[in-house]
Design a protein that fits this description.
Elements (H helix, E strand, L loop, with lengths): L1 E5 L7 E5 L9 E11 L1 H7 L13 E2 L4 E8 L11 E4 L12 E5 L3 E3 L6 H5 L2 H14 L7 E4 L5 H12 L3 E6 L4 H7 L3 E4 L12 E6 L3 H8 L2 E9 L6 H6 L6 H7 L1 H10 L2 E4 L6 H12 L7 E6 L3 H9 L6 E5 L4
Parallel strand pairs: 9-10, 9-12, 10-11, 12-13, 13-14, 15-16
Antiparallel strand pairs: 1-2, 1-4, 3-5, 3-7, 3-16, 5-6, 6-8
Helix pairs in contact: 3-4
Length: 333
């Protein structure tokens, strides 16, 4: 089958290739890929940024988001059947959605939201799971909390805005002024145009900041939190809890060293810092599908690329040009 494979870490390490169709284990479903979403995480994995924690053996197929049709199920699978339209974010070390087929653990799969096209469904698993887990599992957001979402026009930010509003929070977001109306349509109560206004000049008013930019943006985010507030970053630096999450407890000291400065800064300010790395969860995708079908959440797509242009789609995301999710589409036959 055709796939896009990382044969060596680095920007030039991703190439089109012919690879064997994946084997299907007893607890797996084999999915014919109809669409695959592209995420910043794909670049990070391609470049080897997590290679000490996620031991992918090159060559491996890249890609973390998928929507498609089940073609075969393993002997122990009872909840899916051939012909089901599904979506998923496959678990780490079993990724590979930039391909014609992928075998996925049944626990990571859910029926596709019926109201979404394949392209729309492929755009949401990773960002929807990340939004849910960050807001519900980590931050435990309650009605009335004040939330600041950076990059609200992007795939993750736009999803966090919608889910935070559904959970009853008051949401502020930073966007380019050209995207202000879009952010308000998604549910943002307050919009900061980062091209004209420094969000850090605002009072310390937030219970939670979700950072997807890192660096100086993260450092400044700590200063706008209320006492005891929480800054969650999806781009790092990783903290000791991340080593435990990926089953590498011996690397806790290393993760602690990497995040030492930001955690010390947070303690000095009387706030908290957490690195966040989402996990695959089919049960949560099932719950999220209901929110998409109810219209509570809507996918935000920028554009689609044909599968053969996956490298161009990756470059488009890396250049920071995307206003929403980028999806590659495969032929239906």
């Amino acid at each position: 089958m055709k796939a896009f494979v990382v044969d060596s870490y680095g920007k030039d390490g991703l190439h089109a290739a012919d690879v064997p169709e994946p084997a299907v284990g007893a607890g797996d479903v084999l999915v014919r890929v109809r669409a695959a979403g592209i995420n910043p995480l794909d670049k990070m994995v391609r470049d080897g940024e997590f290679k000490q924690l996620l031991k992918y053996r090159t060559p491996f197929v890249l890609g973390h988001d998928v929507a498609g049709v089940v073609t075969r199920v393993g002997a122990d699978v009872r909840d899916f059947k051939a012909g089901d339209e599904v979506y998923a974010r496959p678990r780490d070390l079993r990724i590979g959605t930039f391909a014609e087929y992928i075998a996925i653990d049944r626990a990571d799969v859910a029926l596709k939201p019926s109201s979404l096209t394949m392209e729309e469904a492929a755009a949401v698993p990773l960002v929807a799971l990340a939004a849910w887990q960050a807001l519900v599992d980590v931050a435990q957001i309650k009605p009335g909390r004040q939330v600041l979402v950076h990059a609200g026009a992007g795939g993750l930010g736009s999803t966090v805005i919608q889910l935070a509003k559904h959970l009853g929070a008051s949401v502020t977001t930073t966007v380019n002024g050209k995207d202000a109306d879009k952010a308000r349509t998604l549910g943002a109560d307050h919009v900061i145009d980062y091209t004209t206004t420094d969000f850090a000049e605002q009072p310390a008013a937030y219970d939670l900041v979700l950072d997807s930019l890192g660096g100086e943006n993260l450092t400044k985010s700590l200063t706008v939190l209320k006492p005891g507030g929480l800054a969650i970053s999806v781009v790092g630096p990783p903290d000791p809890a991340f080593a435990a999450q990926v089953g590498k407890p011996l690397l806790k000291p290393v993760m602690g060293l990497l995040s030492r400065k930001v955690r010390a800064r947070a303690r000095k300010l009387g706030v908290r810092y957490a690195f966040f790395f989402m996990r695959a969860d089919g049960a949560q995708l099932k719950a999220l599908a209901a929110l998409y079908d109810a219209g509570t959440l809507v996918p935000v797509l920028d554009r689609t690329f044909p599968f053969d242009e996956t490298l161009d789609a990756m470059a488009y995301v890396e250049n920071g040009r995307a206003k929403g999710k980028i999806v590659v589409t495969l032929p239906t036959s």
